[in-house]
TrEMBL record:
This is Chloride channel protein. Residues 752-816 form the CBS domain. Residues 825-846 are annotated as: Disordered. PANTHER family: CHLORIDE CHANNEL PROTEIN (PTHR11689:SF144), CHLORIDE CHANNEL PROTEIN CLC FAMILY MEMBER (PTHR11689). One of its GO terms (cellular component) is plant-type vacuole membrane. It comes from Zostera marina (Eelgrass). The chain crosses the membrane at residues 127-148, 154-172, 184-205, 225-248, 292-315, 327-346, 379-399, 419-440, 501-521, 527-549, 556-581, 587-607. Belongs to the chloride channel (TC 2.A.49) family. PROSITE patterns: CBS.
Length: 846
């Protein structure tokens, strides 16, 4: 087989499968694994007579070139030209407005000799210990998340309550200017503190955190998304942001907080902060951490909404990409622990021991109704509400995507600009919430009212604001309250005339606008509360307008409006339905809430994806969808493998390994045995970068190129030595010192090689390969040849090779071609027209 020289690397011309194709002594095809890599130079100078050479290659799809003398009628041109040979896309993401490299998680168990020996040596007591530890960690995750959720609520209620109480007292004293300055100063100080934490301490803590958790559970690992510093900033930044009066919620951050707690406990602490627990060595793998983080995400929802069943369903429907019955039991147990912890502390606070926290319960917005039947006008109004929620949801997601793209440009300028943007949004929010109530007229207090009117204190439905005695400002009752109290006011029943239509219209427009400009600033922020507020507002508007023909209370319309907007933006149905029912304690409304959610989701799906899916895509996180793109069925696995990929011999030179690790970002390397270790080149398996680092650090080297076996390895290492490190500084290539003499020595890779990697034949459809990678939670998928006589491995596929931007960048016209055209174009055979008289296609290496 002819070879052409590219720099110092011998690269075989594609298209030949002859007997001279000695791939063990040449390059192999492959793809970028994880991280950023450049074109690889020569890894080692060629030395004559040494059969253990290490080579790299770039994969080229065969591209037919047509001679200029041929009749060019347009049909003889290849329809599909591969423009790229390397995957440089979909390998970086935006985390906390910072661009950083991303990697995949090792959900697959590496079944090497060391793992098998460890598994055989485990005693029954160790297995029981492992099971008990799993349930113990679920208990600790639930208890910790419940405590932090209670602490967040307690801090927010007291800080915001103190601020609102001072503002209310100043307004009663008719000191309007002083009230505004006090209110604005408190908001700006709290916002600045939260933004400073996010900008300088943990940028990954900004935003909701749900997209990052969702991507992590899909197999994407990005820098610091679950670090202890992120947990710290998520807690205190959320307190500052919500207390500052922003139109945001603490629910999304609580999901991220629960995931961070689970990660901290599951990895055995943090090496960076000297917090480690050796007894958690069983959980030093991504598979078990994934289950724990799923429990943490469910616990976060349970703590935020006090909805334990809703938390389990949220993890099942939205967060987790893999699910099984055993995980269902543990998440349910975790959320049950959260509910018990919250009930205990809330019961303690009912006696007034928690400051301005007030009386609370597991039911946040009790709107129990006695309605047992629905009339035809009620159903028609509910159908209209569902359609309206879908339209508003699609519009909200579209506008939010535009605003987040603008914010990303601002945030890229650095931390001071993040803080400045946050302060500007805080000032706008303060002006809206304090100034807009002056636009509405005062309303007389309702007669025969059990509650005090006007309300004296930080909360209540009847804020006095600038009104005289005996009257209240209904818009101030919504703005100058915590977001939870505002929702409670809108959901309250038997208050048909409490809010004027103009008030509801103004509040809806303001919340819709403020919710859009608030999400994306450098503070922990959730989307649930702004969406519930806006949806409840237009739902109450419809209930007020249709009050003469519908029997439903405006408060119930507000609940259905919130459900419709949640369905239109989040695109979740079952979990949102149960969360709302647990929030309101109104099971009678179950059929109506289900109907509204289904309609709103169906309508909104006609326009765009759910808000979290959009954010995942915008951040550049390589999320593997549950269904492959249709055009992937027109491609095969061999079409998208791209280079360079580095392979090792079973017994490899230390210098070659060091050069490969230093010059590539690959995390998995095929291991190929060749003579004298095998009669013909054969794929032994796959070895991970992390395992190579441990082996090199131990310096189990030999002067001769011989297989040492496993006995020596078992005496020096145990399986936990090769376990994945937790957060903080793990073993890096820079930590390993290899002398020049050791560079010429050899190391046996067989004991640490995963001898049973998942493989697919190169002719498998790309869609089928994508589903295999996702459903099994794989990081690497080896592509093997369809016919013998070639290299034992054609390439390695990772999640980056299945990303749409990567495929469409290689094959720009693939969407417009049918299957036959695509296969003809990719294989390099023109659909019609003249061919090369010699019968040999000319090959172009891109």
């Amino acid at each position: 087989m002819d070879k052409e020289v590219v720099g110092e690397v011998r690269v075989p011309a594609m298209g030949g499968d002859g007997e001279n194709n000695n791939w063990h002594n040449g390059p192999m095809l492959g793809s970028f694994d994880d991280g950023l890599s450049d074109v690889i130079p020569m890894l080692d100078e060629e030395k004559e007579g040494e059969p253990d050479r290490l080579y790299v290659s770039t994969n080229q799809s065969t591209v037919v070139t047509v001679d200029k003398d041929d009749d060019d009628d347009g049909l003889s041109r290849p329809l599909l030209v591969r423009r790229k040979t390397m995957n440089l896309t979909s390998q970086i993401a935006i985390i906390g407005s910072n661009v950083c490299p991303i990697e995949s998680l090792d959900y697959e168990i590496a079944e090497n000799d060391l793992f098998k020996q460890d598994w055989r040596s485990r005693k029954k007591v160790q297995i029981y210990q492992y099971v008990i530890l799993k349930w113990t960690l679920a208990l600790l995750i639930g208890a910790s998340t419940g405590l932090i959720g209670f602490f967040n609520n307690l801090a927010i209620e007291n800080i915001a309550g103190f601020k609102l109480l001072i503002t209310s007292n100043l307004m009663i004293e008719k000191r309007t200017y002083m009230a505004f300055m006090t209110y604005a100063s408190c908001n700006v100080v709290l916002a600045t503190a939260a933004a400073t934490l996010c900008a300088y301490v943990a940028p990954a803590a900004a935003g909701s955190g749900i997209p990052e958790v969702k991507a992590y559970l899909n197999g994407v690992d990005a820098h610091s998304i679950l670090a202890p510093s992120t947990l710290f900033v998520k807690i205190f930044g959320s307190i500052g942001g919500v207390s500052a009066g922003f139109v945001l919620g603490k629910e999304g951050p609580m999901v991220h907080t629960g995931a961070c707690i689970a990660n901290l406990l599951g990895q055995g602490g943090s090496r960076k902060y000297h917090l480690t627990w050796k007894w958690l060595r069983y959980f030093k793998n991504d598979r078990d951490r994934r289950d724990l983080i799923t429990c943490g995400a469910a616990a976060g929802v349970a703590a935020a909404f006090r909805a334990p069943v809703g938390g389990v369903l949220f993890a099942l429907e939205e967060a987790a990409s893999w699910w099984r019955s055993a995980l269902l039991w543990r998440t349910f147990f975790t959320t049950a622990v959260v509910a018990v912890v919250l009930r205990g502390f809330i019961g303690y606070c009912r006696s007034g021991n928690c400051g301005l926290f007030g009386e609370g319960g597991l039911i946040m917005f009790d709107v129990s109704s006695s309605l047992t039947s629905y009339s035809f006008p009620d159903l028609m109004a509910i159908l209209s509400l569902g359609v309206l929620g879908g339209l508003f949801g699609g519009l909200y997601n579209y506008l939010l995507d535009l605003i987040l793209r603008i914010y990303s440009i601002i945030n890229e300028r650095g931390a001071p600009w993040k803080i400045l943007l946050t302060v500007c949004v805080s000032v706008i929010t303060t002006c809206f919430s304090f100034g807009l109530p002056f636009l509405v007229s005062c309303r007389p207090c309702p007669e025969s009212l059990k509650d005090s009117c006007p309300t004296i204190g930080r909360s209540g439905n009847y804020k006095n604001f600038q009104c005289p005695s005996g009257q209240y400002n209904d818009l101030a009752s919504l703005f100058l309250n915590t977001n939870d109290d505002a929702i409670r006011n809108l959901f309250s029943g038997g208050t048909d005339n409490e809010y004027h239509l103009s008030t509801l219209f103004i509040f809806f427009a303001a919340i819709f606008f403020l919710g859009l400009i608030t999400y994306g600033i450098a503070v922990p922020s959730g989307l649930f509360i702004p969406v519930i507020l806006a949806g409840a507002c237009y739902g109450r508007i419809m209930g007020t307008l249709l009050g003469s023909i519908c029997d439903l209370d405006p408060g119930l319309f507000a609940l259905l409006g919130a459900a419709s907007f949640l369905g239109g933006t989040m695109r979740m149905t079952v979990s949102v339905c149960v969360i709302l029912l647990e929030l309101t304690n109104d099971l009678i409304m179950l059929p109506l809430v289900m109907l509204v959610l289904l309609i709103s989701k169906t309508v909104a799906d006609c326009f765009n994806k759910g808000v979290y899916d959009q954010i995942v895509k915008m951040k550049g996180l390589p999320f593997m969808e549950a269904h492959a793109e249709p055009y992937m069925r027109n491609l095969i696995a061999g079409d998208v493998v791209s280079g360079p990929l580095v392979s090792f011999a079973g017994v490899e030179r230390v210098g070659n390994i060091m050069h490969a690790l230093r010059l590539t970002g690959h995390n998995g390397f095929p291991v190929v045995d060749e003579p004298p270790f095998s009669e013909t080149p054969e794929l032994v398996g796959l070895v991970l970068r992390s395992h190579l680092l441990v082996l090199l650090n131990g310096k189990m080297f030999n002067h001769d190129r011989v297989a040492t076996g496993t006995s020596e390895l078992f005496t020096r290492y145990v399986a936990s030595d090769f376990a994945k490190a937790g957060s903080g500084k793990g073993l890096k290539l820079e930590d390993i010192e290899i002398s020049e003499a050791e560079m010429e020595m050899f190391v046996d890779l067989h004991p640490i090689t995963n001898t049973s990697p998942y493989t697919v034949v190169e002719s498998m459809s790309l869609a089928k390969a994508a589903m295999l990678l996702r459903e099994l939670g794989l990081r690497h998928l080896c592509v093997v040849p369809k016919v013998p006589g070639r290299s034992p491995v054609v390439g390695v596929l990772t999640r980056h090779d299945f990303m749409s931007e990567h495929i469409l960048d290689m094959f720009p016209n693939i969407r417009s071609l049918n299957r036959n055209d695509v296969r003809t174009a990719v294989s390099g055979t023109p659909l019609s027209g003249p061919t090369d008289p010699s019968g040999v296609e000319s090959v172009s290496n891109d």
